[in-house]
Structures are given as C-alpha cells and as structure tokens.
Amino acid sequence: MIEITDVAAEILRESQLEGKVIKIYNTRPPGDVPNYAIGLALPSEGDKVFESKGLEIHMTPSEADQMQVALVDYVDDERGRGFVIHAGQGDVCGMVSCEDCDKEIC
Fold this sequence. Notes:
alpha/beta; three-stranded mixed beta sheet
C-alpha cells in the first residue's frame, strides 16, 4: 500500500505532464539495500498501479512486491526541499495503517 501525504499530492498534481505518469523506482542495483526515488516517466506495460489521493503511482511488479508499504511526503525546510519516501514496514508502521504492520498495536 502506498500512501501520499496531502502536501506531496499537491506538488505531484502541479508537476504532471501529458503522457507521463508518476513512477516510484529503486535507484540501487538488486541485492543492495533499496533506495527509492519518484519521478515522471512513460508508463510501461506490466506496471503495477497504486492510487492515493486521486493520483496513480506506477511501479515495476518486482519493485512493488519488494516495497510493500510506503509513505510519500514532500518536505521544504532548513534541510532542503523534495520528496521523501519512507518504504518498508519498519519505516512506516503506524504512519500508514496498523493493519499493514502485522501487529496488534502500532
């Protein structure tokens, strides 16, 4: 399950281009600890498509299976500005949904 914060959704809506889709992808080679990024790209046949805040997010099937749970946020503070993707159950437990944590209490 991929959840997008309201702030990130607003920025993504403003960034959309005709013919392009929002994609989340792993920037590291297989076997390394994943590092996810978000961008605009052409859709690919076989993409898994998730919906949050009225936006569709595309991922390859293998990356979608690897990620499982993510929260996409946008920050603009003293550290800089940009999208932050908290991926994996350990990082997002309690931020997305308790049922995604496989725990009785988040």
